[in-house]
């Protein structure tokens, strides 16, 4: 799945399949300007920062079990969000500090460091990487991902795929080759 935020006409957090199909709103109320988003891949939770409401909230992948992690002026102007173990990590764009927040109760807000021009944050650690199983976009014997001549996108599950073409090409009637 692909998760993303939008605060155009109606603010929301959404999800869709990797090929853009099955687009679903998972949060569309009591939300104003969702900017940063992070996933807890193990427990299947979506965390987001709402910079208008000065809050960090969480919901499960289906849009249920929503609650506020923290709502405070102490966390104004956050950009970027990452989850690792018991904490959320984010960047305060006012003073460029990296903040650590307890993701279960919003306590333990600590400034860890300052970085010039920081706008995003990521945690790279072996335990945050999910195991890869065989999938529909694996390279075939001819070197084509999922049998697609240009782009292979996973669809509703890891066994289904959709082929797409680069700009200037159109997908042939076979649904695999671009012309």
UniProtKB/TrEMBL annotation:
InterPro entries: 6-blade_b-propeller_TolB-like, Cueball_EGF_LRP_Nidogen, LDLR_classB_rpt
GO BP terms, alphabetized: canonical Wnt signaling pathway
One term of GO molecular function: Wnt-protein binding
LDL-receptor class B repeat ranges per the UniProt record: 1-43, 44-87
Signal peptide: none
Gene Ontology cellular component list: plasma membrane
PANTHER family in the cross-refs: EGF-LIKE DOMAIN-CONTAINING PROTEIN, VITELLOGENIN RECEPTOR-LIKE PROTEIN-RELATED-RELATED
Protein name in the entry: LRP1B protein
Protein's organism: Chordeiles acutipennis (Lesser nighthawk)
Gene: Lrp1b_1
């Amino acid at each position: 799945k692909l998760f993303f935020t939008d605060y155009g006409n109606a603010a929301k957090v959404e999800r869709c399949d990797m090929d853009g199909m099955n687009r679903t709103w998972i949060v569309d109320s009591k939300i104003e300007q969702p900017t940063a988003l992070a996933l807890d891949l193990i427990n299947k939770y979506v965390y987001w920062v709402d910079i208008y409401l000065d809050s960090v909230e969480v919901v499960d992948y289906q849009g249920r079990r929503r609650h506020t992690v923290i709502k405070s002026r102490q966390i104004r102007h956050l950009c970027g969000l990452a989850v690792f173990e018991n904490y959320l990590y984010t960047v305060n764009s006012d003073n460029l500090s990296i903040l650590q927040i307890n993701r279960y109760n919003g306590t333990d807000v600590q400034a860890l460091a300052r970085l010039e021009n920081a706008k995003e944050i990521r945690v790279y650690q072996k335990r945050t990487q999910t195991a890869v199983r065989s999938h529909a976009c694996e390279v075939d014997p001819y070197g084509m991902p999922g049998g697609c001549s240009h782009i292979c996108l996973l669809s509703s599950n890891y066994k289904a795929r959709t082929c797409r073409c680069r700009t200037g090409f159109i997908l042939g009637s076979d649904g695999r080759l671009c012309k």
